[in-house]
């Protein structure tokens, strides 16, 4: 059984103007097949026209396109038992 991935580089808080893209990155200790999930508040995020979720090796990236005041709130990334928030 593979050891669980841990978060080695946590999310950073950012401040933007309306209409800008918000980019969040989280780095893991290893590439993993475990479920990794992004959240805005308690809402799980999916890749769609407003959100882009990318995985490149151990780097997980969330891009929120053209943010509005409605997008203000805590962003979190969860993998296994580990969580990072901004």
TrEMBL record:
Question: Which InterPro entries does the entry mention?
Answer: Ig-like_dom, Ig-like_dom_sf, Ig-like_fold, Ig_I-set, Obscurin/Obscurin-like_Reg
Q: What is its main location?
A: cytoplasm
Key word Secreted present:
no
Signal peptide from the UniProt entry: none
* Keyword field: Cytoplasm, Disulfide bond, Phosphoprotein
Subcellular location(s) per record: Cytoplasm
Q: What's a GO cellular component annotated to this UniProt protein? A: cytoplasm
Tell me if Disulfide bond is a UniProt keyword of this record.
Answer: yes
**Domain Ig-like stretches:** 3-86
Write down what this protein is called: OBSCN protein
- Biological source species: Corythaeola cristata (Great blue turaco)
Name of encoding gene: Obscn_1
């Amino acid at each position: 059984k593979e050891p669980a991935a841990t978060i080695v580089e946590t999310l950073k808080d950012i401040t933007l103007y309306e209409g800008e893209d918000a980019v969040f990155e989280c780095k893991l200790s290893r590439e993993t097949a475990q479920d990794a999930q992004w959240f805005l508040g308690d809402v799980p995020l999916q890749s769609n026209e407003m959100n882009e979720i990318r995985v490149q090796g151990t780097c997980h990236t969330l891009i929120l396109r053209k943010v509005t005041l409605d997008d203000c709130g805590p962003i979190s990334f969860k993998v296994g038992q580990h969580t990072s928030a901004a």
